[in-house]
Amino acid sequence: MDINKLVDSLFCNQCVSIDILKGNIQCEYSYCECKANSNFASLLDMFANLCYLVDGSNFKDFNSELNFIDPREIRRHTMEINQTWNNHISEKTYSSNEYKYISSQSLYIIKEDLKTQKNNNSLLLRVVFWIRTLDNYFSILLDYIDNEIINESHFPTKRGVLLLRLKSKVADYVFNIRKEVPHTDPNRLKLRYFLNNLHLSKKVSADNYIKHRYLDFGTSKSFKNNDIEDLKIGFLSGDFTVDDYDWCIEESSNTSKLFYFNGINNKNEYCEIITKKVKELLESNPHFIILPELFTPVDLQEKIQQEIDDYYFRKTMKDEPVNLLMVFPGSFHSWDHNNTYIFNVSRVINSSGELVEMIYKQNQFIIKKDENHTGILESFKKHDGYEKISFTNKDITIFDTSLGRIAILICIDFIIDEIAEVLEDRLVDIIFVMAMTPKPDSGKFKRRFQELSEKNKAVVIIGNNGSKAVKNVINLPGINKPYTTNSFSEVKSISEIF
Ligand SMILES: [Zn+2]
């Protein structure tokens, strides 16, 4: 296979796969003239194409080559590439908005440079080093964000979504200031570990619709390392038993029943307690507040929202600083407006009391049938009980913020494989889970947060309902044991949990 043809295919937007060392090319159409298909909308689009075709098997081969190559060769490649690119960019500067376009000249100089390579092995090295040089160049996008020139950190391309790596402030604090050692992801031979600024995420997720939203916390909340010490999480958690709910149980089949909760017993009194407790939490000026699953009927969530609104108003009137960024007010079963479906839903609120996003649980809880069930659970002696909710809302919203990427989930969604893949692939840094489980710090939950700690250096924060032993969980990356307590209500800063 001649080098020119391989290079043309690396810039072909129809190409399915290339094995650079073996010289195999698979194009979408067998008659593809790869030369003609290098139409890219932007420099990012072209970069995504290279990442798409190089990541995987080629990148593994690249790492294999590195083990046997003279280090001076590596230096030669990177120096030559940097020189070529810097010369080019000094002549043709991309100004702040132009990363959305591509100059044909840029495409030309990269292609021509690659075509000077004498054999497949050196072409492989050369193209990976080109990817890294371009990735380094794209650090300008982070500067644009810092200087508020742009407010987007994900860029759709033909090959998938390119994500700008936001700084994960909590992870940086844990590793740079507290000097903890990150866990190693055994799947290391991936382009994502080689690049600093951009990551090409997979084009599709089978089960979910993924939205990225840039959430501006304001310049006063840009979070330096020292600020992270004082990043405070407010928890208000529960240990509800089955007797605390107003149940609805319906026949479904010979082997199963459906259930949902109409409400909470002694609701008026309960709402007063919870509202009062939220007020108390606010007095400690936390950054986040999390309440657990099946803890707050929607009208109580709205009441909490009103409390936040009042709090924000009081604080700003007195010119006092408000740390609050987001409130996850717990979830509950709720009928939709047409009384057609029930959702397990949480209304996420921002610091000034506005509704930011509705979070829907997307998977079903099951009560296993058991002859020993007593009380209300007697209905499930011979029948499994299925949570009667709709899973039709499959949105996963990822908030791109100055703290890193944030995702919010309800209970078992956290341990569902497809959702974990999304969290991993979309570089989520902080995950809040409103849970109701006897074991939020062990078993499946623990396995999942350890995995996300390895892969994303992710922080997992769980507010739990349904266990007397463990109510609040914070799992920091690189640390083997999660922080757990059984406090009904508390505010914890990151520095306090070491
Ligand atoms: Zn082609």
Secondary structure topology:
Layout: H1 3-10, E1 15-19, E2 24-27, H2 43-54, H3 57-66, H4 71-91, H5 104-115, H6 120-137, H7 139-146, E3 154-157, E4 160-164, H8 169-177, E5 198-201, E6 209-214, H9 225-229, E7 232-236, E8 245-251, E9 256-264, H10 267-283, E10 288-291, H11 298-317, E11 326-329, E12 332-335, E13 342-350, E14 355-360, E15 366-367, E16 384-387, E17 395-401, E18 404-410, H12 417-425, E19 430-436, H13 443-456, E20 459-465, E21 472-475, E22 483-485, E23 489-493
Parallel strand pairs: 6-17, 7-10, 9-16, 10-11, 18-19, 19-20
Antiparallel strand pairs: 1-2, 3-4, 4-5, 7-23, 8-9, 11-13, 12-13, 13-14, 15-16, 17-18, 20-21, 21-22
Helix pairs in contact: 2-6, 3-6, 4-5, 4-6, 10-11
Bound molecules: zinc ion.
